[in-house]
Amino acid sequence: MLLFVVDLGLQLFTQSSMDQATAKAAHNIQTGYGLYLAGTQIGTNRGTAQQVVSYVCPLIPVPTASCTSGLQVYAATGSTFSALQPVNSPGAGLSSTAFSPGGSAAPVMLQVAYHRTPVIPFPSFVEPWIISTIVFENEQ
Length: 140
Known about the structure:
Blueprint: H1 2-31, E1 35-37, E2 40-43, H2 49-56, H3 64-70, E3 71-77, H4 90-93, E4 107-115, E5 129-137
Antiparallel strand pairs: 1-2, 3-4, 4-5
């Protein structure tokens, strides 16, 4: 029982950190300012999927090696907000290659998913993904 409580705490802390990191990345994509981390420019303009992974990984409390291999990023743009469709199954549908941060005044949905290895193994039908989703309209 104690391990379950510790595992749940780690999961909630990781989720909160991912939400904050995704919001920061979304803000930088939204403004077109570029991705800066600790004063170092990681990406220009709205960035690429790999640049967003490089930006988000140091901001979440997971080992770097598992972050870069276990983190998936998806950005989609549409003509309206209602046209944006989230990916609900990261293992199969969320892909770092599907990254379209849109242009000026475009509605964008950014999803960041992390495949977390739990302390207590889950049943085989449960996927231990943590997903953070944010929707915004680009400036510029």
